[in-house]
Every structure is written in structure tokens, then in C-alpha cells.
Amino acid sequence: MPNDFTHLDAAGNPSMVNVGDKPVTRRTAKARSIVVLDEAILQHFTNDDIQTKKGPVFQTAIIAGVMAAKRTGELIPLCHPLGLENCQIRIHLNEQREVVIECEASLTGKTGVEMEALTGASIAALTIYDMCKALSHDIVIKEMMLVEKTGGKKDFYRK
What's this model's pTM, rounded to 2 decimal places? Predict the structure, then answer.
């Protein structure tokens, strides 16, 4: 049976993917997390953010998400360390009053940035949890997904 996993060598051992011969292309990725907060937390939502004793929740989550995206290669085994050229995180409430976190990462390089976008959105969600848990533990991080990626072998767009 052929090995279809890119991070395993022929013997089945973990192996970093060799990107040395891959072409340099423009790479982008967008990821999304959705966090459901208890009404006890949402009542603190004013001026497009949640204010807690720890500070502005969304602003702090944005900073944490960008910091995490930049360190993805240190956090996830076998990920290449990348010099991101851009990382933007946007946070808002949707119609159901759920917190939507969108992380977009990009660079020009030999490997994609989907793990960086996913890491940024994940850590932003975890930061919201951490900053709001004193108000209520009824918090659910219900969704984490890659929304799209461009560059490399093939593009991906979630419908």
C-alpha cells in the first residue's frame, strides 16, 4: 500500500516534508473559529468588544492569534518555520450572537500557510475562553475550519 501521508517516510517514520524543489508562489489561507458565549458574558459586550477585568477581550485575542500564527513552526511538529508577510485577525458577533474569528495569513514561499491561519484562529478562540471564564464557564469553541487556501498544487475554497 503506497504511503499517501506527506509527513511519513517510506518506513512510516515521521519526516518533515522537503520543500527544497518546490516553486516559490504566493500562498494565502483563511481559517475560522466560532465561539459560543453565555449571556452572562455577552452582557459585557460594548463598543464592539467584551470588557473584562483582564482588559478588552477581542483586542487581546487578536494579538494572541497573530503571535501564535507567527510561531506555528514551533508549536506543531514537522511544520516549517515561516516568515509570514501578513496575518490579519478579525472578530465580530454574527446574527446568532456567536463570536466569529477569521484569520488570514499570507506569504510568498515554497509551502502553504493554512496551519498558520488555523493556529491563529485557534489561539484567538482559546484567548477569548481564558479571558471570559471568570464570568462563566459556559463557553463552547464549536467550530474550527480552513475556509480557503491559494497557491501551491491546488487551491481550496469551502462552500
Answer: 0.93
- State the residue for C-alpha cell 471570559: 132
Strands (DSSP E) along 38-123, which ranges?
Answer: 45-46, 49-52, 55-56, 86-93, 99-109
**20 assigned to some structural domain:** no
- Which candidate in 21, 48, 130, 155 is catalytic? 130
Active site residue 130: yes
The domain that holds 95 is classified in CATH as 3.30.70.640
CA 138 to chain centre: 22
pLDDT digits (tens, 9 = 90+) for 82-141: 999 999 999 999 999 999 999 999 999 999 999 999 999 999 999 999 999 999 999 999
Which residue type is seen at 122?
S
For residue 60, what is the enclosing H or E element?
Answer: helix 57-70
In the chain, the number of structural domains is 1
Q: What is the domain range of residue 134?
A: 25-151
Torsion of CA 21, 7, 113, 147, to 10 degrees: 130
What whole-number distance in Å separates Cα of residue 48 and Cα of residue 45? 7
Closest by CA position to 67, among listed 119, 125, 130: 119
User: Identity (one letter) of the amino acid at 105?
Assistant: A
